[in-house]
Amino acid sequence: MGNRVLVHHDPVRRISTFHEDMGDGTVLQTREQDVEAVLAEVKMFREANEGQGWGHGQVVAAIPDTLFHKHFRQPLMQRDRKAIRALLEGEFSAFKTRDKL
């Protein structure tokens, strides 16, 4: 494989886009997101939510963009709270900002 080059970085969403010359005339484009930064946000929100009751504007989860588009987008568009809760109580529980949803 060839050289991997950073072609774009979005500091707000923490997503970096890379191009890599595969050596056969093709270029592979990949996108990566700094999940550690998202987990740091989760910790910050958890601390802010600690001892607080439910109210308007509370953050329930901080989900990386790539996971959001793959797993959460459809249930949110369909307002399927059961599916969203199942995702947050299961495989993606590390991104919850509260213990109880």
Provide structural commentary:
This protein has 101 residues and is an alpha+beta fold. It folds into two domains: 30 residues, no CATH class; 61 residues, no CATH class. The chain is built from three helices and three strands. A three-stranded antiparallel sheet has the order 1-2-3, with no helix packed on it. Helix 2 runs antiparallel to helix 3. The protein is elongated. The chain starts with a strand and ends in a 12-residue tail after the last helix.
Nutshell version of this structure?
This protein is α+β, with helices and mostly antiparallel strands. The chain has helices at residues 35-49, 65-77, 81-89; strands at residues 4-10, 15-21, 27-33.
As residue ranges, the low-confidence spans are none
Largest sheet: 3 strands, antiparallel
* Strand composition percent: 15-25%
Q: Would you tell me the overall average pLDDT?
A: 87
How many DSSP E strands? 3
Helix proportion: 25-40%
| Shape by Cα distribution | elongated
Overall domain count:
2
The end-to-end span amounts to: 45 Å
- How many helical stretches? 3
The computed structural class is alpha+beta
* Rg (C-alpha, Å): 17 Å
Oligomer: single chain
Biggest sheet: strand arrangement: 1-2-3
Order of helices and strands: EEEHHH
Please write out the topology.
Blueprint: E1 4-10, E2 15-21, E3 27-33, H1 35-49, H2 65-77, H3 81-89
